[in-house]
Amino acid sequence: MTEESRTHGTSGTDVHTLSVTVTGDDRPGVTGTLLGALSGVDAEVLDIQQVVVHGHLTLTVLLRPGAHVDQLRDAAAVAAHRLGLTLTVVEGTGDNARPRQGRAAVVVLGAPLSADAVSLVTSQIALHGANIDRIRRLSRYPVTTVEFDVSGADVPSLRRDMALVAASEAIDIAVAPGGLARRGRRLVVLDVDSTLIQQEVIELLAAHCGREAEVAQVTARAMAGELDFEESLRARVETLAGLPATVLDEVRAAVELTPGARTLVRTLKRLGFTVGLVSGGFIEIVGDLASELGIDHARANQLEIVDGHLTGRVVGDVVDRAGKAHALREFAAQEGLPLSRTVAIGDGANDLDMLDAAGLGVAFNAKPIVQEQAQTSVNVPYLDSVLYLLGISREEIEEADIDDGTPTQAPPVPHHGH
């Protein structure tokens, strides 16, 4: 056990403080023992902070000691010796509290997450004149996720520079306002095809008339922003003319959810969040998915059916790029939430207006044009990774599943990066 004591210069108006820190192996009762030893001396507690990393404890108590510095130091030494911990005592002035302006949350995801990448992230924060106040691991599988609680940051500027780090290191980084802006109820709106589900529904439908490859080519160009979405949709739907409406049942059965989709929706609903689906696909499929998952809102195109067959046309206005953003705003208004409390998730060019309108726009395994323009990107194949961007940890998700008896199975850990 070692003890270090330093005295900083004081002025007549500074608050005299004593910082007592113990480090070592964590076990139950450490905090109680230390504070119990200090309670016998008349001192005011100004701050307490504790962190445990892989069983190693660091506990700091900041005190206003009054005239009892020596007694407090002796009491802390006895307690640390009894606990077998290392003690550091620092005498100083002020309560060490810095102004907490420019609060931001910087969330870093990697599979794997290298030390070099983390070093670049922390260096970039420092270059912006911001301070890392707290670091927390949010997940260790199927991706490693670390959250940095930062103060003194300009969020838009930091977000731009972090995007460069993300691109160079093949990791995902989200920068969002911290503080109260990170808490409370939200609306989360998801695209469906290639986001909530793994396929493009129109391609599944086109397979029933032998034109899947043709339709898939048009879909890819539309999602990359090369074609007008409404025109391309109407052209693709025309290929379905004459199909019996019963193919919709077959397609519904063939749809596969993206890994983590159920966990994402289930966790958001537990938090009291509102969830919506907005799709350039078809309500005949999207509506059933919303009902199955307990999703609150759904907006998509409607196929025209006459005499039990698809006519090759849609009914009403097409849900295009502008329509998706309109639906986001409409859902938010219905829920009484400002757009700053909304999250949008999508992968295609027709999602860009929606991603831009939302408080947090997330490009999920998206086309290059979307990754370039979105606030943040997630390029791991697990949709529930979006929860980490909201500050929700893997442990919290799994504990909630255990509490309500939901069976969970850990997704496989990827062997490579993106």
TrEMBL record:
Pfam families given for it? Answer: ACT_6, ACT_PSP_2, HAD
**Phosphoserine phosphatase ACT domain: residues covered:** 105-175
Tell me the keywords, alphabetical order: Amino-acid biosynthesis, Hydrolase, Magnesium, Metal-binding, Serine biosynthesis
Principal EC category: hydrolase
Q: Which cofactor(s) does the record list?
A: Mg(2+)
The reaction(s) annotated as catalysed by this protein in its Swiss-Prot or TrEMBL entry are: O-phospho-D-serine + H2O = D-serine + phosphate; O-phospho-L-serine + H2O = L-serine + phosphate
Pathway-wise, it operates in:
Amino-acid biosynthesis; L-serine biosynthesis; L-serine from 3-phospho-D-glycerate: step 3/3
Which regions are flagged for Pro residues bias? 409-418
Give this protein's Gene Ontology molecular function annotations. hydrolase activity
Entry's Gene3D superfamilies? 3.30.70.260, HAD superfamily/HAD-like
Where is composition skewed (Polar residues) in this entry? 8-22
Q: Where is this region: Disordered?
A: 1-24, 399-418
Q: What is its EC number?
A: 3.1.3.3
The similarity comment for this entry is: Belongs to the HAD-like hydrolase superfamily. SerB family.
Name used for this protein in its record? phosphoserine phosphatase
